[in-house]
């Protein structure tokens, strides 16, 4: 029989609180723990202060069976995790000879002199199980502690350096957790939608959602014009869970088919690339307000050179005229942000690049540049193929970065739909 094992992740370091580094560790740890059936219930960040760390440890052990700590294991005085753990557990520090040999070999191999601070990396709290770090000098540590309610709490301390942490988790910690606990199976199925708002989507699938089995939960994850539907199933039978997720996906698809562009790890630019490849089509891009962002999304995909010919960032009207062939009269009469101009841009880049399809963006991303007739957030997009040219007016918000990202999403989806219509 399996029990629900709850985990909390604590990141330590002033640099995280000050915003000087981005914490990517907790996201990765959360994914990996979920994959083996451990539920993340809380993530916390705390600075390099002993009292603050002790307080959050005291709180976490009342809520979780697994507490994972990252950071604060370096050799300098501001790295206080080990000393704080000694205080927390009421133990002293002892030198681990295996850890010392590894640290010594690390420096000898690189021809560097060891200092006492470096040797101190081998000093661990007396109750710690040493977890060897093959890629650095800061060891991992595993602690087993009685919660006081008859259940054991596992504390795991890991380096904050992402590649060291990931190596330790993958090769040491995750297998050890699986051997320690009888874990349930947790599976996710992601249905990726576009072109429909979260509330409209929820209304459309309400009856299906209400009929979901109790062990299958649904979450709505909106992000820049997309909504991901995440189904999470819990159980003990791999095959049964996979079959149930497939059945529920099949039941909901007729309700939302028009808006589904992919599943699980599919990204919009990847799906577009597959469609271009399958249809033996090529692509050229003309960008004004997005400044190359759409092209960057396309070229994130490995192998995109097979279908992407190039782009023209026509930020000025002069480039629109000379490089894309937009008529000066169109610009004079209708302006750069207009249906007439965006149509000419999409058709112009398709002709200039000799491609099967051409897409274009032109708008007022903000925060300045708007007028009463064309306020900030006014954007035109277009897609030109041999069959036709389609255009669309977007009315977005006041925030520049958001407008650029939303425009890229909408124009790539326009391209996707046009390819499917070929």
UniProtKB/TrEMBL annotation:
<dbReference type="InterPro" id="IPR036425">
    <property type="entry name" value="MoaB/Mog-like_dom_sf"/>
</dbReference>
<dbReference type="Pfam" id="PF02464">
    <property type="entry name" value="CinA"/>
</dbReference>
<comment type="similarity">
    <text>Belongs to the CinA family.</text>
</comment>
<dbReference type="Pfam" id="PF18146">
    <property type="entry name" value="CinA_KH"/>
</dbReference>
<dbReference type="Pfam" id="PF00994">
    <property type="entry name" value="MoCF_biosynth"/>
</dbReference>
<dbReference type="InterPro" id="IPR001453">
    <property type="entry name" value="MoaB/Mog_dom"/>
</dbReference>
<feature type="domain" description="MoaB/Mog">
    <location>
        <begin position="8"/>
        <end position="180"/>
    </location>
</feature>
<dbReference type="InterPro" id="IPR050101">
    <property type="entry name" value="CinA"/>
</dbReference>
<dbReference type="InterPro" id="IPR008136">
    <property type="entry name" value="CinA_C"/>
</dbReference>
<dbReference type="InterPro" id="IPR008135">
    <property type="entry name" value="Competence-induced_CinA"/>
</dbReference>
<dbReference type="InterPro" id="IPR041424">
    <property type="entry name" value="CinA_KH"/>
</dbReference>
<dbReference type="InterPro" id="IPR036653">
    <property type="entry name" value="CinA-like_C"/>
</dbReference>
<protein>
    <recommendedName>
        <fullName>CinA-like protein</fullName>
    </recommendedName>
</protein>
């Amino acid at each position: 029989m399996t029990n629900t094992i709850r985990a909390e992740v604590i990141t330590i370091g002033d640099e995280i609180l000050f915003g000087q580094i981005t914490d990517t560790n907790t996201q990765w740890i959360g994914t990996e723990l979920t994959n083996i059936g451990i539920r993340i219930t809380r993530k916390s960040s705390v600075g390099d202060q002993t009292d603050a760390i002790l307080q959050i440890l005291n709180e976490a052990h009342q809520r979780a069976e697994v507490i994972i700590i990252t950071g604060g294991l370096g050799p300098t005085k501001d790295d206080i995790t080990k000393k704080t753990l000694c205080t927390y557990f009421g133990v002293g520090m002892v030198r681990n000879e295996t850890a010392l040999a590894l640290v010594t070999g690390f420096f000898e191999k690189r021809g560097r002199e060891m200092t006492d601070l470096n040797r101190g990396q081998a000093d661990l709290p007396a109750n710690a199980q040493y977890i060897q770090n093959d890629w650095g000098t800061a060891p991992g540590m595993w602690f087993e502690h009685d919660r006081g309610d008859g259940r054991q709490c596992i504390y795991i301390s890991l380096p904050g350096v992402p590649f060291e942490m990931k190596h330790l988790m993958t090769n040491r910690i995750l297998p050890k957790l699986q051997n320690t606990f009888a874990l349930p199976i947790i599976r996710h199925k992601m249905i990726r939608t576009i072109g429909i708002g979260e509330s409209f989507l929820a209304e459309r699938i309400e009856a299906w959602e209400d009929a979901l089995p109790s062990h299958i939960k649904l979450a709505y994850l909106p992000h820049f014009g997309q909504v991901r539907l995440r189904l999470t199933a819990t159980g003990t039978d791999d095959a049964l869970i996979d079959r149930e997720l497939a059945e529920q996906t099949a039941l909901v698809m007729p309700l939302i088919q028009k808006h589904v562009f992919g599943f699980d790890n599919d990204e919009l630019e990847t799906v577009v690339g597959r469609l271009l490849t399958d249809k033996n089509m090529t692509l050229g891009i003309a960008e004004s307000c997005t400044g190359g962002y759409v092209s960057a999304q396309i070229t994130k995909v490995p192998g995109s050179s097979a279908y992407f010919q190039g782009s023209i960032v026509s930020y000025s009207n002069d480039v629109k005229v000379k490089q894309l062939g937009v008529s000066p009269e169109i610009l004079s009469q209708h302006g750069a942000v207009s249906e007439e101009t965006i149509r000419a841009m999409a058709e112009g880049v398709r002709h200039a690049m000799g491609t099967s399809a051409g897409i274009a963006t032109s708008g007022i991303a903000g925060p300045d540049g708007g007028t009463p007739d064309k306020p900030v957030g006014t954007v035109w997009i277009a897609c030109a193929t041999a069959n036709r040219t389609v255009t669309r007016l977007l009315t977005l918000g006041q925030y520049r970065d958001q407008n650029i990202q939303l425009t890229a999403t909408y124009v790539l989806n326009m391209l996707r739909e046009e390819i499917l219509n070929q």
